[in-house]
């Protein structure tokens, strides 16, 4: 079977290196690569099956625009986008299929699925607190995965962004019933830990995922690229890993 041909943007980063190592194990090859500040040849990009971007959020809109121009599907692994950057990427998704996830681990996406189920089953009597921890070099907070978990709980319980509390300090008063606590920890070389706590009267349910290396993320990213290459994303639109894994 012909190897999957990938364009990898951000190949010098931690995730880029992990994908470089993982690709051959999944019958894929990096036929074009670039890093921050590098120009990308549109003709060479058009010869790739899928583009994969793990660079930086400010670079993603331009990569998405280039992919839309040459008709190549895109896997986005960057986080921390501004509303303006998100809008530009969404415009490009009207022309090409995009898989866009804050985390490509199969386990994390199962965590998303279970969190949705738990939020609905347990109901408002169970207070939700979300804690994430990453290495000291991570530049954005909270993580894209944690933001996704917050959104899952908000949608399941029909809450607004105003119901989210990003950390607490001082005399905060009694915790509002519908509040979602969001806490970001940074330190050491932690690859990525996420825990969703449902605290009720007399019991507590905790759903956790801990990544010990970046291989799990690289495996999911290449899996998403193959899913796009096989036409599962259709001709356009934004898809999550839940679609790739059949959880949706």
How are the elements arranged and paired?
Layout: E1 4-9, H1 14-22, E2 28-34, H2 42-46, E3 50-53, H3 60-70, E4 74-76, H4 83-92, E5 97-100, H5 106-122, E6 127-134, H6 144-157, E7 164-166, E8 180-186, E9 192-199, E10 204-211, H7 215-229, E11 237-239, H8 241-244
Parallel strand pairs: 1-2, 1-3, 3-4, 4-5, 5-11, 6-8, 7-8
Antiparallel strand pairs: 6-9, 9-10
CATH class division of the largest domain: Alpha Beta
Helix content: 25-40%
Query: What does the oligomeric state look like here?
Result: single chain
Mean pLDDT level = 95
Q: What is the 3D form?
A: elongated
In CATH, the topology of the largest domain is named: Rossmann fold
Q: How much of the polypeptide forms β-strand, as a percent range? A: 15-25%
Number of helices: 8
Structural class based on helices, strands and sheet pairing: alpha/beta
Total discrete domains: 2
**How far is the first residue's CA from the last residue's CA?**
29 Å
Point out poorly predicted stretches: none
Order of SSEs: EHEHEHEHEHEHEEEEHEH
CATH architecture of the largest domain: 3-Layer(aba) Sandwich
Fourth-level CATH superfamily of the largest domain = NAD(P)-binding Rossmann-like Domain
**Cα gyration radius (Å):** 19 Å
How would a textbook summarize the main sheet?
6 strands, parallel
Adjacency order of strands in the biggest sheet? 2-1-3-4-5-11
Number of strands: 11
């Amino acid at each position: 079977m012909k190897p999957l041909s990938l364009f990898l943007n951000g190949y010098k980063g931690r995730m880029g290196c992990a994908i470089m190592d993982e690709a051959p194990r999944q019958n894929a090859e990096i036929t074009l690569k670039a890093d921050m500040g590098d120009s990308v040849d549109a003709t060479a990009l058009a010869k790739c099956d899928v583009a994969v971007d793990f660079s930086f959020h400010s670079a993603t809109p331009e990569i998405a625009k280039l992919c839309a121009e040459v008709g190549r599907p895109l896997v986005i692994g960057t986080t921390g986008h501004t509303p303006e950057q998100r809008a530009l990427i969404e415009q490009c998704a009207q022309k090409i299929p995009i898989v866009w996830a804050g985390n490509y681990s199969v386990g994390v996406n199962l965590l998303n699925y279970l969190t949705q189920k738990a939020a609905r089953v347990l109901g408002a009597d169970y207070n939700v607190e979300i804690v994430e921890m990453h290495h000291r070099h991570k530049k954005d907070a909270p993580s894209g995965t944690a933001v996704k978990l917050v959104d899952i709980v908000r949608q399941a319980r029909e809450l607004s962004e105003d119901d989210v509390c990003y950390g607490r300090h001082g005399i905060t008063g009694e915790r509002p019933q519908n509040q979602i606590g969001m806490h970001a920890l940074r330190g050491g070389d932690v690859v990525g830990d996420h825990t969703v706590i449902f605290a009720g009267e007399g019991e507590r349910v905790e759903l956790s995922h801990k990544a010990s290396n970046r291989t799990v993320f690289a495996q999911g990213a290449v899996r998403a690229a193959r899913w796009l290459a096989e036409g599962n994303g259709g001709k356009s639109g934004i898809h999550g890993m839940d679609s790739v894994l059949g959880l949706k």
